[in-house]
Design brief:
The chain is an alpha+beta fold and 163 residues long. It has five helices and five strands, in the order ββαβββαααα. It has two domains: 77 residues, Ubiquitin-like (UB roll) (Roll); 63 residues, DNA polymerase, domain 1, CATH 1.10.150. The protein has a five-stranded mixed β-sheet with strand order 2-1-5-3-4, sandwiched between helices.
Length: 163
């Protein structure tokens, strides 16, 4: 364990006592109690563990802590606040994206990285960037919510539809 590690996490410099080889996911959840980032598959396939590192979507379950030292890490806990939700969070609600909700934090972090890089994404851009898996199959709603957050969709909530 190395007590001298410091992470730039959600805009704050945070000292951590962790093995540099520990996956970032376990540091976030088990040591720092930031449980919004979820464990899904453990092999970077599902995306439930997605966080942003220097603005890029990163699968934290396979990312050693040592590789993020000196980089800006953002988790779902810092995407918005209850008083000022991020436009994606507002769009997620308006488009009724969540079903079970398990994948949502990873989806939102991947979508935020996409919109930072491509503010007006095409369907192809969204399909290429959103490789996270939603077991409930709300992919069409996710696409609509991303477009809504980008200012590309109507501002009226979608009609209730089942997934």
């Amino acid at each position: 364990m190395d007590a001298s590690l410091k992470l730039d996490l959600n805009g704050k410099l945070v000292p951590v006592n962790a093995d540099p080889a520990m996956p970032l996911l376990w540091l976030l959840r088990d040591l720092l109690n930031l449980t919004g980032t979820k464990f899904g598959c453990g092999v970077a396939a599902c995306g439930a563990c997605t966080v942003r590192v220097d603005g890029q979507a990163v699968r934290s379950c396979v990312t050693p802590v040592s590789t993020v030292l000196g980089k800006r890490i953002q988790t779902i806990e810092a995407l918005g606040t209850p008083d000022r939700p991020h436009p994606l969070q507002q769009a997620w609600i308006a488009e009724q994206v969540p079903q079970c909700g398990y994948c949502q934090s990873g989806m939102l972090m991947a979508a935020a990285a996409l919109l930072d890089k491509t503010p007006q994404p095409s369907d192809a851009d969204i399909d290429a960037a959103m490789t996270n898996i939603c077991r409930c199959g709300t992919y069409q709603r996710i696409r609509l919510a991303i477009k809504r957050a980008a200012g590309m969709a109507s501002v009226e909530p979608a009609a209730k539809v089942s997934a």
